[in-house]
Amino acid sequence: MNAFRACLYTLVLAAAGNQVARADQIFVTNPGSTDTAGDPVSAEADFSYAGGVWTLALTNLTPNIKDAGQLLTDIFFTANGTTISSSDLSSQTGNLITVLAGGVISDVPSGTSNTLGWAFGTATLNGVTGNELCVICQGAVSSPQGITPAQGILGPPTAGVYSNANPSIAGNGSHNPLVENTATITFTGLGSGITFGNVVFSFGTAAGDTVSAPEPGSLSLWLATAGLLALAGLRKKR
Question: What is the pTM of this model?
Fold first, then answer.
């Protein structure tokens, strides 16, 4: 029993240490978030570090969206209270598709990542200075697509079709092509010791429809807590 307890204690310490050292930082909108029209919106920003490269996987989680107001078109974030230079942005890619009338998907280059044209730069939002990546920008960054953006990020389709899509998405020449589900952005030259925060997602084709994300939860913290509770239970049992 003593050996088991020592092993468990070691795992708890490792998990607690990993809470500080882990590279992955995931931000997700709160359940029940909506845009200004009352339609559901949901997004995830996953920052991960490997091989000298930070990767941001930016995903629209709302399935089979109906309206362009639910497109993910902007993310604001901070990094250790400083800003990232545009020269640190290495790449931005995603699978570009066209949604035709009836929600049918066209122009899907299977297995191909297209280069995206989102703007990136320094911005101030809600009194906080950080970075913004956007097609409809909230801060000082200029929107590259104007007020009718292409390359907004869709949520996943249902059975390969956006059957709920209204004319603001389906067959809309101004808003297409769109990014299917996830855009992948990479940064180089930053080092591993970055803590991201103050994440704000924005949706739709007009500035101002923003949803803040809470600070990321941690499996490591859960493991540490569970381990401590287990140790307490063992002590009580003895």
Answer: 0.81
